[in-house]
Amino acid sequence: MTADNWIKARIEKTRMAELSPFEETLYLDADTVVMGNLDYAFEKSRRFGLACCINECPWARRNTRTHAGDIIEYNTGVLFFTQAMRGLFSSWTRLANELDSALPWIDGDTLKIMQFNDQCSFAAAVEETGISPFVLPLNWNFRPQFYKSFFSPIKVWHAYDDVPPDFYKLNEYYSKEGAIIQFHERAFGYRLSSSSLTSR
After folding, report:
1. Are residues 10 and 78 in the same domain?
2. Is the domain of 95 the same as that of 24?
3. Residue 133 sits in the same domain as residue 143
C-alpha cells in the first residue's frame, strides 16, 4: 500500500458511524482478536454513546504540531459507539482532513515522522464536541508490546502477532466460577512468567 492510499484508508476509517447501518456498533482494527464476552462495553456505549480505551501513550501532545497541554489521546482501534455519536464522528472526519497530524517518534537514535495519525484528530474531535467517553480498562484494547504487566482476563487482543497460548489459558482460568483475579507479568516476548499461571 502506498503512503497516499494508507492515509486515505485512515481518513475513511473516521467515517465509520456514517457507514454503519446499526444503532450500536463495535469497530475493530484488522489486527485485533476478540477473546471474551463484550456485553459490558456495549452496555456502556448505550448509556454514554461511546466506550473506548485511553491510548498506551495518553498524551495527545505527542502530535506536537496540533496539540498541547493535557489533552487525552484515545486508541481508535477498538470503539463501541451508538448513532448518538454521529456529531463526534462528523467532527473527526472534518478534522482528519484539516489538522496536521504528523507524529514524530524516536527509533533508536533516529527521529522519524509518521505522516498521519487518525488518533490526533479523534482527540481533537472529543475536545471540540465535549463528549465524555466511557473509559474501559486496558483489557478491552490490550496492546502487548506496551503492557508488560496486567490483570487478566483479556477482552480484546490488539497486535499483529498471534495470541500466545498462555493468554488463552489465562482466559480459560478466569472463565471458571470462583477464579481469583491475579497480577500477571510477561517474562520474554509475549510469554508469561510461570507465577502468572498459578491457579488457586
Report:
1. yes
2. yes
3. no
Q: Tens digit of pLDDT for each residue in 69-121?
A: 999 999 999 999 999 999 999 999 999 999 988 888 898 999 888 888 899 99
Q: How far apart are CA 118 and CA 10, in angstroms?
A: 6
Instruction: State which residues form the domain around 156.
Output: 139-197
Please check whether residues 78 and 157 belong to one and the same domain: no
Residue matched to cell numbers 500500500:
1
> How many domains does the chain contain in total?
2
CA 11 to each of CA 2, 77, 181: distance values in angstroms, whole numbers, following the listed order? 14, 14, 39
Own/partner long-range contacts of 2-5 (Cβ < 8 Å, ≥24 apart): 3/115
Model-level pTM? 0.90
- Going by C-beta distance under 8 Å and a sequence separation of 6 or more, which residues neighbour residue 67? 60, 61, 120, 123, 124
Distance spanning both ends of the chain, measured CA to CA: 48
If DSSP codes are grouped into helix, strand and coil, which group holds residue 24?
strand
- How far apart are the C-alpha atoms of 50 and 193, rounded to whole Å? 35
Instruction: Give the residue from 137, 152, 173 where a domain finishes.
Output: 137
Q: Which residue has the cell 485485533?
A: 32
Using the 8-state DSSP alphabet, how is residue 163 labeled? P
Using the 3D structure, point to which of 107, 122, 137 is the last residue of a domain. Answer: 137
- Which amino acid does the sequence have at 154? I
- Cell numbers standing for residue 60: 495527545
* Lowest-confidence region among 92-101, 109-118, 131-140, 190-199: 190-199
